[in-house]
């Protein structure tokens, strides 16, 4: 079906799904892509012939060309933007813009990875760095690994604002408590602050439980133009506003270790959505490490700079990473697409575990998904709503 020439259309998420996740030893990444895509399409109730856009990254030599071929799609619009964990929020922004401008009618965002199974089968090893070419050549000789960059940033926040190890550990404890309610989560056993603090040191100040898990899995999200919503199986979740930003690649060019690019992407997304952080009722935030959750909450405006430590300890604070996040539920690689899936499920009232509700029992109206890539190098933020 040819795309429309309309200059502005509302855009909705109408299909979301996970593939099999956690420990998946017998599937290929392509199979997980296909499984997630089929499930998301079934969730939407639309016919696959409507899909004329595809966004994918992280698989194959010519992503998303290889993924499109495997799925049997011949898209008229594609995106292979790869900016780490923020990839999917940035792709969602691009897809929404394309649909609103009439360049596509229905865009499928799809991801799949067997990161855990590949290591288990010795098809790959753990990554210590992203390479030693370009600007990174000046850091790699000193053993400055990915986790070391996050650890340095966390230590700076602790120095500047008095953030404590116990406050960072609370992020992992809360994530595990949410995962305990989620039958799809990989790790569900309760943990305590002491469990986090007493674990093996990975990169000071991060012990093992400060760090995301490694899993297999995939997911898919289908976005469509407003005129197709009437044919969908379920009520739409609307894309209200998006923002994206990149800040640095070398640590020497990062002006302030305590400020992430979400400070910019969040401001843009909330401004374009016409809402305030205080209006948001559930937040899905990229959490490869505990510090990411804390500083992103600050930068999105849910609390003031330097107050993230106290905020994450509040009992009645904003529900965050309701599925258990990358710290406990799943983390097969670029996890940003999982944030969008969980945000949509929350607004639909379909969360498999913790379902957020208002005091009167009604469902939340607004959610935000904010992905972070690299070592706070990039950020994408998407504001979603039911109305």
Automatic annotation (TrEMBL):
Molecular-function GO term, any one: acyltransferase activity, transferring groups other than amino-acyl groups
Domain of life: Bacteria
Signal peptide boundaries: none
Gene3D superfamilies linked: 3.40.47.10
Domain annotation Thiolase C-terminal: ranges: 243-386
Keyword vocabulary terms for this entry: Transferase
PANTHER family tied to this protein: ACETYL-COA C-ACETYLTRANSFERASE, NON-SPECIFIC LIPID-TRANSFER PROTEIN-LIKE 2
Protein name stated in the entry: Acetyl-CoA acetyltransferase
């Amino acid at each position: 079906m040819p795309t429309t020439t309309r200059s502005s259309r509302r855009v909705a998420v109408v299909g979301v799904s996970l593939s099999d996740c956690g420990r998946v030893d017998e599937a290929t990444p392509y199979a997980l892509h296909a499984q997630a895509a089929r499930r998301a399409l079934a969730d939407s109730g639309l016919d696959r012939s409507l899909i004329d856009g595809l966004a994918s990254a992280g698989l194959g030599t010519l992503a998303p060309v290889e993924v499109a071929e495997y799925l049997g799609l011949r898209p008229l619009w594609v995106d292979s933007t790869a900016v780490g964990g923020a990839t999917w929020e940035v792709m969602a922004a691009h897809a929404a813009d394309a649909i609103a401008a009439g360049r596509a009618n229905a865009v499928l965002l799809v991801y799949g990875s067997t990161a855990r199974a590949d290591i288990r089968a010795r098809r790959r090893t753990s990554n210590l760095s992203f390479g030693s070419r370009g600007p990174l050549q000046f850091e790699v000789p000193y053993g400055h690994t990915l986790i070391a960059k996050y650890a340095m940033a966390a230590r700076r926040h602790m120095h500047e604002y008095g953030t404590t190890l116990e406050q960072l550990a609370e992020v992992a404890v809360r994530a595990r408590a949410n995962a305990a309610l989620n039958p799809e989560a990989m790790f569900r056993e309760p943990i305590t602050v002491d469990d986090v603090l007493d674990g093996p040191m990975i990169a000071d100040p991060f012990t093992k439980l400060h760090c995301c898990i490694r899993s297999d899995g995939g997911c898919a999200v289908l976005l469509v133009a407003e005129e197709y919503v009437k044919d969908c199986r379920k009520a739409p979740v609307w894309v209200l506003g998006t923002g994206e930003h990149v800040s640095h690649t070398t640590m020497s060019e990062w002006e302030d270790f305590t400020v992430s690019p979400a400070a910019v992407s969040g401001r843009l997304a909330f401004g374009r959505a016409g809402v305030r952080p205080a209006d948001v009722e559930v937040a899905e935030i990229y959490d490869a490490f505990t510090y990411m959750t804390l500083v992103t909450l600050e930068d999105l405006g849910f609390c003031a700079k330097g107050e993230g430590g106290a905020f994450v300890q509040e009992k009645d604070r904003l529900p965050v990473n309701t599925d258990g996040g990358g710290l406990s539920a799943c983390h097969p690689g670029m996890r940003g697409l999982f944030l969008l899936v969980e945000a949509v499920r929350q607004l639909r009232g379909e969360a498999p575990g913790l379902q957020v509700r208002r005091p009167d029992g009604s469902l939340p109206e607004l959610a935000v998904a904010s992905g972070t890539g690299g070592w706070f190098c990039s950020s994408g933020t998407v504001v979603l709503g039911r109305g």
